[in-house]
Each structure stands twice: as C-alpha cells, then as structure tokens.
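Anyone opening a protein record will find just a pair of labelled lines. A complete record is shown below as an example:
=====
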Amino acid sequence: MGIFEYRQAEEIRDAFSRYGVRYLFLGKSGAILLGYPDTTQDADLFMDKSQENGAAAVNALRELGFALSDEQAAEIIHGKDFVQLKNGPFDLDLIFAPDGIEKFEDAWHRRSEVQGFPVCSIDDIIASKRAANRPKDRESIVRLESFRDYIRSKHD
C-alpha cells in the first residue's frame, strides 16, 4: 500500500474528463488538493449516482488499469453506497452516499476547482468526517478545521 500521489489525481481527472464522469474528490485526498499538508493512502471520490455516470466511470477506470470484476462494474453502475477498489494502479474508494452530505448536486454547487480537479468544499469534507465518526476521522477534524480557518483568513 503506497501513498496516493498528485500524478494519480491527474490520471483520474484526465480519464474521468474523457468519459464525462461527474465526481468530486472527497476526504483527505480532496483536502490535500485544496492545499492541506498531509498524506493519504487512497483517493476518495464522491460520485454522482446515475447509471450513465456509473457506466462512464467503469470505462474510465478500466482505461486507468483497474481490473474490475463484473460484480464491481455492476456496483458502480448501480451506485452502491461504497465501492473500494484495490485492483488497479492505486487504491480508490468510490462513494455514492457519503456520510454527512445529503445530495451530490448540493456538494457540486459548493465545490472548488483546483487546477481542473473538482473538489468538495472543505466544509463538506469536514462534515463527512464528522458524520463518519471513525477514530481516524475524529483525530483529523481539528486539523482540518484549522486548515479551513487558515484558508478563509487568506481570502478575507
């Protein structure tokens, strides 16, 4: 298990763009793209839940080198709440129903675009971690909130 790299985010962005996939970087990978100083083992993608979007994502993921089983492809196409992929060039979590975020469309309107990367707002990233309430998420919330406050102070 390696560390998720910026190059991999670029590969996702480019392949998903070619297939018209609607998604947002979420979790720590999203925060890192916003400038948060940390590392993560995988990328978390909040996916728009439609069969067309899921089918496009399957095509893009296969192009990226993910060896999707028929079952995984069907889960993605039908928008299963959480699909964890460890059968490709890097680890990837596809999340169709993240904790703490009601609708993809709402998060889409709050997103940030960072060098062509669609990223959940820092508030949505924090809300998702707070709602998940896992020990590793609780530990990072204070640092993410501090980062959010820093970003806001730079824009005031």
The chain has one domain: 6-150. The helical segments are 6-19, 27-33, 51-64, 70-77, 104-110, 122-132, 135-155. The longest helix spans residues 135-155. The CA atoms of residues 29 and 43 lie 5 Å apart.
